[in-house]
Amino acid sequence: MVEHVGVEVSAVCTALPPLRGTVEHQGSLADFIWFRTGGPAEWLVRPDDVQGLAAFLAALDPEVPVLPVGVGSNLIVRDGGVPGVVVRLPKAMAKVTIEPGIKEGSRRVRAGGAAMGITVASAARDAGIAGLEFLRGIPGTIGGAVRMNAGAYGRDTSNILIEVTLVTRNGTVETWPAAKLGYTYRHSELPAGAVVVEALFEGTPGDKAEIGAEMDRIAAEREASQPLRSRTGGSTFKNPDGGKAWALIDAAGCRGLRRGDAQVSEKHCNFLLNLGNASSADIEALGEEVRARVKAQSGVELEWEIQRVGMLADDGDK
């Protein structure tokens, strides 16, 4: 049965199909989005399991937009909120298991879409599976990593993914081989509204101590170079071909640049910060100012890596 949190059941509410899980009208996203900014989801949906999610999406009006959200580590939610349904997977869908691979002696890691990168990397380490260490530096869920081909320290999700299980917008449960995702740099061809519920990864046999040492190195490097304890959204812009976004931003004089309580990090120029009371509009406008200054200084047009979703507060434009 559907459980409605903090809202009376109304005619509008009953337009949503039943769900095994919870549905919250005007559910807060700023409570968990890393920037701690932005408007609410029109409907924040937390399914209990894959089958319940599939049945819900199959019965949902096809005109209603669906947006899967993990922990919001690479997301700007605009101040007008997100129309339609936002799907957030529960901890029950964060299970990580080890299973045999196809080749003799090989092993694979199967992870639920809600599992965190560090959890998957740690499970691989404990099983003596090398090649997944970079996930220690991915501060989001596996669902998000699969969708955006997240990467760090010279490796991408596409390097280790075997297959992905997803619930499509029309409610079918499908398993896709990695090749079907059409991976490019920080991009996949996963269809809009599809929710990644499970991923299968493969590495190579390795020494647990060496794997652990590499994970520790990644953690130390992140701590030294990134503003991890701030309200941020991770890497803001994609690295252009043959260059580094942070270096272009620094060269354009944007280190420490502010717009209200939104600031370009002084520690790492490709991170934007909410110093306390920034709005999502402040953060996005600061990002656009950075892009303009970089274009004027170097001729390079930076592309957003952070996903920007929802409506502006003033005019409702997406």
Features:
318 residues, alpha+beta, Uridine Diphospho-n-acetylenolpyruvylglucosamine Reductase, domain 2, Uridine Diphospho-n-acetylenolpyruvylglucosamine Reductase, domain 1, 3 domains, five-stranded mixed sheet, five-stranded antiparallel sheet, 22% helix, disordered N terminus
What does this structure look like?
With 318 residues, the chain is an alpha+beta fold. It has 3 domains: 2-91, Uridine Diphospho-n-acetylenolpyruvylglucosamine Reductase, domain 2 (2-Layer Sandwich); 92-211, Uridine Diphospho-n-acetylenolpyruvylglucosamine Reductase, domain 3 (2-Layer Sandwich); 228-309, Alpha-Beta Complex (Uridine Diphospho-n-acetylenolpyruvylglucosamine Reductase, domain 1), CATH 3.90.78.10. Helices cover 22% and strands 27% of the residues. The chain is built from 6 helices and 20 strands. Strands 1-2-3-6-4 form a 5-stranded mixed beta sheet. A 5-stranded antiparallel beta sheet has the order 7-8-14-12-13. It has a 4-stranded antiparallel beta sheet with strand order 16-19-18-17, with helices on one face. A hairpin with a 5-residue loop joins strand 12 (161-167) and strand 13. Helix 2 packs antiparallel against helix 4. It is globular and about 55 Å long. The two termini are 32 Å apart. Mean pLDDT is 93; it is low at 1-14.
In short:
By secondary structure, the protein is α+β, with helices and mostly antiparallel strands. Helices cover 22% and strands 27% of the residues. The chain is built from six helices and 20 strands.
